[in-house]
Amino acid sequence: MRKTQKRVIEYRVYDLPEPFPIIFIGGKQWHISDVRSNRLHFHNCLEVGICHTDSGIIEFENNPQPFRAGDVTVVSRNILHTTYSSPGESSLWAYLFMEPEHLIPPYLRQSLEEAELLDEIEQNICRIFPRTEYPQVYFFADRIAKNLENKPANYAADVRALCVSFMIELMRIRSGTTSAEHDANARNTLILAPALDFIQDNYSQQFRMEKLAELCRMSLTHFRRVFGEIMSCSPLEFVHRTRATAARNLLRGTNMSILEISERVGYMSISCFNRHFLRETGINPSEWRKNNTEVPRQNISVYPGWTLPENSKERGGAEVGHQI
């Protein structure tokens, strides 16, 4: 009997610029291969996908769901998934990666949180929205994508307003979700999600590893073992990695001094910050800022978070099959 190949879990980090944490990925080259990847992945932000052509399957953990042209997908951070097209097809997609909590104005976010649904969407949703059934979801997602792609005058303000409308629409739909559907989505959340969410929200603070273990309802020893198996690093290493990601955004997008940035991301001394930043990036903060103040145009596949699937095929002379 042929031995079943063990699936690989990947954690993909997307650097979202401050103070406008949203990026658009699209264009004729963004096709999804029909190769079923051996990798399930999750990421550090909300993913919204717009399927333009063809059909295929999205797997949320071991739960395959079909998609087709016109569908919008919404996947919260920390939910395992992978996407592949139907045999012989190569579906064309556009993607939005965002942090809604930092796109929505604070005074609006406070009123939205009273419904206790916004956090549910940000942390615990994995769903496909067909255009025919949810035209408003498609409308808002498509408008956001077109603004980010074409960058008309005042596009950033328009995107923020559209994000509010988009999240409200999802909240309305979510409020009508049955308890069975909610439980099914909840089961797709990684066992480490409480710790990962806590780190994402509190990386600039000082906290003990016991806190993370308690959030996941594990002993410290068991938590460290499980974390290492899934993340391929220790919890402390992951904290430093998260801080380095935040520091890169501040180095690139603000005029803050390196000392101010080191304090903002959670380090008690600049020497400690420099040491860990160098370990994570291979370069010190001042050199990184010098090299990345003007970010050159380049294919997004070189950034962390994007890979090509195994055995990707070529059709019409162009390589297809980005793994999302």
Main attributes of the structure:
324 residues, 6-stranded antiparallel beta sheet, 43% helix, Arc Repressor Mutant, subunit A, 2 domains, alpha+beta, 13 helices, 13 strands, Jelly Rolls, globular, 3-stranded antiparallel beta sheet
Strand count, sense and barrel status of the largest sheet are: 6 strands, antiparallel
- CATH-defined topology of the largest domain: Jelly Rolls
Number of structural units classed as domains: 2
- The geometry reads as globular
What is the helix tally?
13
Mean pLDDT: 81
Structural class: alpha+beta
Short description, anyone?
This protein has helices at 100-103, 106-113, 118-123, 135-150, 155-175, 179-187, 193-202, 209-215, 220-231, 235-253, 258-264, 270-281, 285-292, and strands at 8-12, 22-25, 31-32, 39-43, 46-51, 55-60, 63-68, 72-75, 81-85, 91-98, 126-129, 314-315, 318-319. The protein is an alpha+beta fold and 324 residues long. Helix 4 runs antiparallel to helix 5 (155-175) and helix 10 crosses helix 13.
